[in-house]
From TrEMBL:
<keyword id="KW-0547">Nucleotide-binding</keyword>
<feature type="transmembrane region" description="Helical">
    <location>
        <begin position="232"/>
        <end position="253"/>
    </location>
</feature>
<dbReference type="InterPro" id="IPR050482">
    <property type="entry name" value="Sensor_HK_TwoCompSys"/>
</dbReference>
<feature type="transmembrane region" description="Helical">
    <location>
        <begin position="200"/>
        <end position="220"/>
    </location>
</feature>
<dbReference type="InterPro" id="IPR011712">
    <property type="entry name" value="Sig_transdc_His_kin_sub3_dim/P"/>
</dbReference>
<feature type="domain" description="Signal transduction histidine kinase subgroup 3 dimerisation and phosphoacceptor">
    <location>
        <begin position="416"/>
        <end position="479"/>
    </location>
</feature>
<keyword id="KW-0812">Transmembrane</keyword>
<keyword id="KW-0472">Membrane</keyword>
<feature type="transmembrane region" description="Helical">
    <location>
        <begin position="132"/>
        <end position="159"/>
    </location>
</feature>
<protein>
    <recommendedName>
        <fullName>histidine kinase</fullName>
        <ecNumber>2.7.13.3</ecNumber>
    </recommendedName>
</protein>
<keyword id="KW-0808">Transferase</keyword>
<feature type="compositionally biased region" description="Basic and acidic residues">
    <location>
        <begin position="525"/>
        <end position="540"/>
    </location>
</feature>
<keyword id="KW-0418">Kinase</keyword>
<feature type="transmembrane region" description="Helical">
    <location>
        <begin position="92"/>
        <end position="112"/>
    </location>
</feature>
<keyword id="KW-0597">Phosphoprotein</keyword>
<feature type="transmembrane region" description="Helical">
    <location>
        <begin position="60"/>
        <end position="80"/>
    </location>
</feature>
<dbReference type="InterPro" id="IPR029016">
    <property type="entry name" value="GAF-like_dom_sf"/>
</dbReference>
Amino acid sequence: MGGAVTFAAALPVTLGLLVALRSAQVSIGMLLVCHGASVALIGLQALDVLGGGAGLLLDQLAQGAWVLLFVWSAVMAHLFPDGALPSPRWRWWLGAEVLGVMAFVVGAVGNGETFSEQHPGQAPPLGALTSTVSAILGTVGLVALVCLVVGAGVAVVVRLRMAHEDARTRLLWLVWGAWAVPVSLVVAWANHFLLGDQTWLVIAALGVGTLSVPLTVAVATLRHRLFDIRVVLSRTVTATVMTGAVLVMYASVLEAVRRLGGDSTVGGLLAVAVVAVVIHPAHSWLRQRVERRVHGYRGDPHRALRMLADTTETAPQETLTASISATIAEAVRVDWARIDTGSGVDDGTHRFPLEHRGEVIGSLVVASPPGGRFGAEDLALLRDLARYAAVVVFADRHHGALRDSRARIVAAREEERRRLRRDLHDGIGPSLAAVVLKLNAAETRTDAQERHAILKEARSEVKEAIDEVRRLVDDLRPPAIDEVGLLAAIRQRALGLSEAVVFEVRGPSAMPDLPAAPPPLPHRSGGDDQRGPPRERHPV
């Protein structure tokens, strides 16, 4: 027993000194040292190694020392992993709760009745409080202790929601250690009420409950990547819940058979049968839920691909790429994933090429899982997700290009309509209006010679209007393009405009095949350039 107490007290002190000396978390290290000192105080009182006045003083101080084990662990949970509170507002909360717990310690130390029961006829070395004051301090302290423990849990949850990568891994170590505390307390109570206080079970439960938090906090601070804590935590939770369920189920069936007046042997066999039938599907269901919470859908590739397909179908077009990245991160349970068009490998990430029909259109960059690494099956799943994402990203990009192309086509068509309207309004329209006026004027003339002159002018303007209509039609699709090709058509146009300025058209001897729509544009552009201000001879 003495060796166990020495080990339980020395381990937190040693770990605390290592944390204080080898990391920046001095406050965490000092709390571990205080935890070990409290274990030593309780252990010395239990072993009764001191006699006389020193022993009485130690016994009185140890009356409320057990609560300090919860205090140090709860304060560490408030400060972990960076040694600071989640926000400045937490200082008042933590200070008030610690003062309340200290009131419990004072009330327990000053409880003269408890001291008299342990040492009949002996007066407390530090004096005693009245029973009323001791009870008030004890009640206030217990409420403060409950609030302190609840606050520690809230602080850890808040940090887990905001933490990334290393910080999250360290917090999961703390969660794993804290999970052992209520489990050990339940085991100790079950041992006391059901098993008759088995000594070895008491020592094991108290040892686990006392050392689990200091040990995991020290490992999280110094070697948080020792192994994949998420796997360990998930399996610990599964095993604990299933073990508790089996014990409760077995005991419930036995008690039910006993109350019905059945034989204990029959009850035992019935309990075993019920457990055997229920435990396997329950274990599979629970393990699946816990694994999904920790690892996502790494163990269920079809479900992961189905999630990605559902996202592709329901996500808005504007946020499709971001939605795919978020779905992949959720499927493999990592902090983030993104679709990247760059190259290279970032630290702590995995990069998978997005390849579609031999064309690399980007990369799927995935953060490493906190506290571990991807296995071969996980990497295979990510490659499959990358293949599917490549098709979606390729289609999304081409959809955007098609949308832009349609917008340009609509804009070009609208511009062409404006040009036609302008040419008709500014050219043919006034010409035809002038013809009508001249015909009206000719109709009013009585002199045949004057009427003949006016009709001659009208006839000339009608010819000009017809020529303008032909020019507009030729601009829409010049016949020369179909007859001699684009380059020769531009040369013909340049020759027709070469009067004061000589235009020279150069181009390849063999032009590629062009679709029906594009050629009029360069042909028209060449003509517009040739109709520009006179310049020196230059290639167009």
